[in-house]
């Protein structure tokens, strides 16, 4: 598909402006060396090439057929291509699933599978593979060759960004428009083509959605351990009313889930196209760092401060061994006596091109420094073009030694300098924040690889699946999907989670006897599938200290529950041990249609929907990812004793999150789950309130 020796363009045209003409013209002008066969029923010659009426008339084999004809004719032509033995197809034509015609699109997939004929599309603008001089698209013709593969689901945006990369001197190994992804999508392209492509060192994706998210995660992670993946994700899904029934469902917007999944895969998510390509420029033209120490070299204090702030925002470590920095940079040929070696290394406004050259050379040669950021503010004492030449000379002399980025601020001469550096594949930017952000992306990818190498593959936890499913079968036998609190807690007990002692009372006398067993004080709450949020119904009473209060509480809860929902079926009143007050957190689960079970963690209690301080991960995962969740919420300091809070048992909290992750991965019946609150104490954690909703079907 990417290195064809023969191409047939079905729907080729001799009229400029027609897609069939532009594809032909691009293939020829980009320097394709193989045989090119235009297919057209009426013409005899197009752009100097002999025309054939059908694909079956073409002599010899066809490695790639590019189809751009009306949708109604495509199935028949697909069949002809299959019979001809065409090896692959790029289907430009639109008018299939994107306009509701799923049936025809599915038919094309069946034809392709019948003849073992992989195809990209439909609804694409084509494919480009620079190493084989292939530009079978109707986008711009003069794509700059490079090491970045660009996969895009959007046609119009893809073409626009194609042009943008040319203007901004960003080299591409390939551009692949995937459109409707009928047969081949991002995952298949990366795993089967780009993962081992020697001409591609990084991959940039524009995606609107992923099918089979769990499968995609495995592939993305596998590929991402070899090559960095940058994602530009657009589009937000609207969750249905069913999801709003739980805290987790109402908070787990799909975009948050994509962000979580990308982090787990090691995918670098950019907020816009400019940022995505900024990162790509840095990543494709730099080696992995061998350590964390970053040095900033500048001729201006202000721009140095801006870069320092940006570095702190993205957790880049500025090298701060003052003695070593002074030894390296406090030299007459680098800076005057009033220069600074505090990092940023300020060679001052009087520092000329040669001072930059010497400083860059020193930074490259110092084994203590692992990445270099150069900042240049245009001054009358420096020649931007000469400085660019010195930078090129030093980077070339220390090629692949350590990551290097440069940001330059100034007028037209500086713009030309930036272009010149980028033309030489040296990552150059017009603002320090862009350079820092791009370098940080490279470091994040490196950290992902290091962490994965330490962790290894996740092993499934041994859970009592048989016993858990037996409880679920009883619930389903009653025609329910909403599990009662005592049923949910029974499952958590089976998973060896800490649950306060409890029992279910059917009358006030039962409640008194249970309270005597579990010990005072107790908490009492209604058990009813028809009352989800018990606090709102006045169906929870806490700190009940004697048997007389138990009797009163029983009657009050029943009355309040029926007042809240007169049709509620009350299964009993749960009498449970009252756990001492502790830090309240929430662990929740919702089942995403693409990624499957997603675990949520955050500050709990009644404030979860107000503060929305929560974080998500796709299950299953291990203790390292659970720790990222704990440390990822804004209020994490509360867990570590801030503001007079008691220090919580983070290890027990981590274990609980991991168990829930494994539970919902192994038990497909769980649609939603809330432990809210989970009391996180100085020693251990306790499941105070819990709810599980089952899937509609077993």
Sequence stretches where pLDDT stays below 50 over 5 or more residues: 236-253
* CATH level 3 topology of the domain at 287-455: Rossmann fold
The CATH C-level name of the domain at 287-455 is Alpha Beta
User: Count of DSSP E strands?
Assistant: 30
Report the CATH superfamily of the domain at 287-455: Succinyl-CoA synthetase domains
As a percent range, the share of helical residues equals 25-40%
Shape: flat
CATH architecture of the domain at 287-455: 3-Layer(aba) Sandwich
Distance between the termini: 42 Å
Report on the architecture of this protein.
By secondary structure, the chain is an alpha/beta fold. Among the domains are: 287-455, Rossmann fold (3-Layer(aba) Sandwich), CATH 3.40.50; 501-578, ATP-grasp fold, A domain (Dna Ligase, domain 1, 2-Layer Sandwich), CATH 3.30.1490; 583-694, D-amino Acid Aminotransferase, Chain A, domain 1. 38% of the residues lie in helices and 21% in strands. The chain has a seven-stranded mixed β-sheet with strand order 9-8-11-10-12-13-14, sandwiched between helices. Strands 15, 16, 17, 18, 19 and 20 form a six-stranded parallel β-sheet that branches. Strands 25, 26, 27, 28, 29 and 30 form a six-stranded antiparallel β-sheet that branches. Strand 5, helix 2 and strand 6 (89-91) form a beta-alpha-beta unit. Helix 2 packs parallel to helix 3 and helix 10 (301-313) packs parallel to helix 15. The model is unreliable at 236-253 (pLDDT under 50).
